[in-house]
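Lab notebook page, bench 4
Experiment: in silico fold of construct C2
Operator: M.H.
Input chain length: 385 residues
Purpose: comparison with the prior construct
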Amino acid sequence: MGLSRLALLTSLFLPASVLSGEAAAQAPYRLLATAESDDQVALIEFTPCTGPGVPAGCGARVARTYDVGVWAPETEGPHGVVPSPDGRSFFVSLAHGQPFGFLQKVDLESGTASGLVTLGMFPATVDIARNGGFLWVVNFNFEDPTMAPSSVSVVDAATMAEVARTTTCRMPHGSRINPQGTRHYSGCMMNDLLVEIDTRTFAGTRAFTLVAGKEGGVPWPTFAEVSHEGMHGGMGEMGDMSNVCSPTWAQPSADGSRIFVACNKSAEIVEVDAEAWTLVRRWKTPPAPYNLAVTPDGKLLVVTQKGPGTVSIWRLVDGLLLADIPGTRKVASGVAVSADSRYAFATLEGVGGEPGTIDVIDLRKFTKVASVEIGKQAGGIAMLP
């Protein structure tokens, strides 16, 4: 075989890093983050400042911003954001409707809105099935003085039509789907519950009480016996008001065998066995754990501590606290982890007129390596594929 032919075959089958003897130029990590008080979504790019020499343009930057919302004079509060699986568009929940909020679809390249659906009161966190079929949005119901039990909306991503609205509990939050795509989980801030929905039937299946000393499954109500408009009774344990734990996030593990729940009020993480529906363990955290993310390799749990504005990193095999990293600003909110388990990205809302901030954390060195400012009150965050 001639040298030129060998070189051609080598170039086809070997990565550039092997051919050059150096690390190939790395494409930036890309993510989306909401600025709730500016009705914007920011597209962030982060290029690590590592490798041979310092890469040109390394660090974090705002690549572009998207104005979102329906009513230009109003602050509609984009809360949750998630990209489509192909990365060509994203979906953002608009919480402050009159009285109902929306879910909006936006084309990533053009920035034009290409779909809109009205949901319940204060739609907040949102997740999407891996196949891109359905979106799941919790109707947080924050502004309802009656504290009536609320719901989870299921939206067809292709048509932007709400296909189901599953009644769950008071102030649901932390919408997340397991890796298998078969179960949806959320917490109930005013009922101290973890709730599970079957993603194939859109029906509620199980609930788990998170109060210390009382952990375990509780009966799920028969939806046919409960008013969809406002359920003020007849729910038994599911209807009991409680916010001892005040769960703000429910995060499946990398393999879906465990569910981690952030008890914002009692400053704890509760770990639940997803199959046996039993308590595995619970442990104390710094004050006010808020949002959670698990690294795809299953090794770490990353937690934003809302009050102090820090990000804590836990080793899951033994529950060891590896780091508690102060944020650039106060009021830590959302968190997302890169697909290679190398970096975590946390939003910090800031205080008063301060801009929102994205902090980038190296999950090998447990240090903050970059930060970038976006609009006011940075909140929801999601990695682009």
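Observations: The first strand starts at residue 29 and ends at 35. The two ends are 40 Å apart (CA to CA).
Next step: discuss at group meeting.
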